[in-house]
Known about the structure:
Number of helices: 7
Oligomer: single chain
Largest sheet: none
Order of helices and strands: HHHHHHH
Helix content: 55-70%
Distance between the termini: 90 Å
Strand content: under 5%
Amino acid sequence: MKVLTTVKWKHLLALIIGVTTASSVMAFSQDMSREAIAERIQPVAKVRIASDAAAGPASSQASAGRSGEQIYNQACVACHATGVLGAPKKGSAEDWEPRLAQGMDIVLEHSINGLNAMPPRGTCMNCSDEELLSAIEFMIEGI
């Protein structure tokens, strides 16, 4: 029985030494400067309120005037590439002609306010009306 107790103590002592050594090595291997610590503990996300939208980076990106292709690739491609739920496919005259017959103002209004399965602004809440129009123009190029 005495041999068993001695073995347990040796294992416990080895475990304590191993944990202490590993934690000290880890502490020395990390950069402990104030800047490095501040960078490691930054929040992973920020909460935005609708009234703050004008001050955020999303609005500065929107104000930079993204191209129709960029808007299409960001917000429209999921539905308009394949015609999901009746969405007119990019470049398909058959899909777009009845809509365009209503006039571009109506098509733009539907993209801003949503229509049928299409949500308002096609889920691109930081897109300006002009950017939505450029996305529509991109989708109907060559028709």
